Amino acid sequence: MTSVGVTVNGRKYREDVEPRLLLSDFLRHTLGLTGTHVGCEHGVCGACTIRLDGGAVRSCLLLAVQADGCTIETVEGLAANGELHPLQEAFREHHALQCGFCTSGILMAAADLLEREGTPTRDELVDMLSGHLCRCTGYESIVDAIAEVAGTS
Amino acid sequence: MKPVPFTYVRAESVEQAVDTLRTHGGEAKLLAGGQSLLPALNMRLARPTVLVDLNRIPGLDRIAEENGGIGIGALVRQSAAERAQLIRASCPLLAESLPLVGHFATRNRGTIGGSIAHADAAAELPLALVALSGSVITTVRTIPAADFFVGHFTTALADDELVVATMWPRARPGESSALEEFAPRHGDFALASAACVLRVENGAVAEARLAVGSVTDRPELLDVEPLLGRAVDDDSVRSLGASAAAAVDPPPNLHGSPRYRRALLGSLVERAVRTAWARATETSP
Questions:
Q1: ipTM, 2 decimals?
Q2: Residue B169 touches chain A, beta carbons under 8 Å
Q3: Which CATH superfamily is domain A86-150 in?
């Protein structure tokens, strides 16, 4: 077992884990933060996307031990003081989710993209979403929601 | 789908990583960005007994101008390279390749050195490095890109040797380039890919390099003799596309038969050459 210390959504945790434990399973099973979803476990579906020191990453493609000392944000940390994050508001407004399985990963990737790129073009949004499989919405409403927050015309 | 148990070693230096490789022989595996290794671990296609995490080794995340080119530390994340002004300005073929590697979130973690050392036959960065005649700097030597890639997932690296940087030649005056690929969805493995570098002098092609990937088990340079000493025109482009398609023998996969992939390669070669020429001469293709 290896000791791992992380800050998740502003709260500090320290746990002993097996080196082979995936960060996605650490978040869900060890910390009980089940807002991060697990789909394919090989980096294709995007459901497990979280932010590690600010950058959107696949939590199924990281070992929990690799996150030692890092700051993590998950979908549970998006809303602040009971207020939905603007992306969450826009997703509700535009009906950008149905079953919601892909949503937390998309929100975390979009939050990183918007902070980093400012106002991405619609093509850049579509490009980013190629890394997130949604089987309900047909994507248009998701693009609309993120575009509204980004100020993309 | 979870990895088999292994011993985790967080290397603090290149020397420690090499020592660990020596101690464990072929049983140890290096972990850089992990965007290809972790899927292999999760699916238990890879079952190393020791995993050597390189991510905390200091000094391998630099991008710097060096003699004749851009030196990129092995641990530079693909997304950091994508945003680097130096790469956009000096190495346009690499800049064009980076957004095609995986997805937004995998590029935040995936490294340049990892992609090169992994040597997937369908990967963009090995293709670009071969097309540019770049090189790979390891713990013991410098290996020209064309000699580094031996086959699908196979390189010239010894068991106790690791990639510390890659060297990307700077685009020279009159030089232009283009990389074309086709994948069913953005970020998927390409069914065929081609990269072309041209140096144009007085309206004629003075130098040319054409590398193809995905359809071969490593990036391969093809004969470009028909392009040299003249302007690129429909005839030369079409004959080059046809000869490229005839030169390869891709296996079938889920998305395309060998015949389809050969035809696809021919079109992509044509497109890459036309685009590179258009960029060199600033006229429409």
A1: 0.96
A2: no
A3: [2Fe-2S]-binding domain (1.10.150.120)
